[in-house]
Design a protein that fits this description.
Elements (H helix, E strand, L loop, with lengths): L9 E6 L5 H15 L3 E6 L13 E9 L2 E2 L1 H9 L7 E8 L14 H7 L2 H10 L4 E9 L11 H12 L1
Parallel strand pairs: 1-2, 1-3, 3-5, 5-6
Antiparallel strand pairs: 3-4
Helix pairs in contact: 1-5, 2-4
The chain binds flavin mononucleotide (FMN).
The site of flavin mononucleotide (FMN) has 20 residues, from helix 1, strand 3 and strand 5.
């Protein structure tokens, strides 16, 4: 048992941050989970072989959005992940808010946004296809295309951590 009374878990976090926003989110996840007594490591996906992940109780995968999908590195990584069926996972994405159409100035409808924001659904498809079991997800928004993260983003991370802990 840890100081907070929880059974400490070994948690591995993998992200594919390009501009640093997702890397900050991953570090905040680590800080908050570590404060609850868990053992957490953070890795960039480019530094790890997806077929040889370290053993853990829970895996957290994060990706920035690219034209409605996870960034290419994250798609390839998740396609190649080898983990035993039944392994627990959670995901997070960093996403830019929907923009008005440049010509018409009109905001996209919720249906149009859903069609283009398939970042988390695609991550889930890849992982559930391997028999992994989802325990949580989160989206953290960036203010502009390359960041920074929205105000009070740590609050979003706090809520995510509270659900998966
Ligand atoms: C070429 C390009 C395409 C993008 N497409 C999307 C998108 O389809 N959906 C979205 O939410 N964000 C999109 N973004 C914004 C990214 O979500 C944002 O750059 C990212 O979350 C920042 O995270 P990072 O700092 O960890 O790389 C795009 C950004 C770029 C540069």
């Amino acid at each position: 048992m840890s100081v907070t009374g929880v059974i400490p878990l070994r948690i591995e976090v993998f992200h594919a941050s390009k501009y640093g926003n997702g890397a900050n989110v991953a570090e905040e996840i680590k800080t908050e989970l570590a404060a609850k007594g868990h053992q957490v490591s953070v890795h960039h996906m480019k530094e790890v072989k997806p077929k040889q992940l370290p053993q853990a109780d829970l895996y957290i995968f994060g990706s920035p959005g690219r034209i409605g999908k996870p960034i290419g590195l994250a798609r390839r990584f998740l396609k190649n992940v080898i983990l035993p069926s039944g392994t627990k996972y959670a995901i997070f994405s960093t996403e830019a808010p929907a923009q008005p159409d440049k010509k018409t100035g009109k905001m996209p409808t919720p249906e149009e946004i859903a069609k283009w924001q398939r970042i988390k659904p695609i991550m889930d498809e890849l992982l559930k296809g391997k028999g992994l079991v989802k325990v949580g997800d989160m989206t953290v928004h960036v203010v502009n295309l390359k960041g920074p993260l929205e105000e009070n983003w740590q609050r979003t991370v706090e809520e995510f951590v509270a659900k998966i802990d």
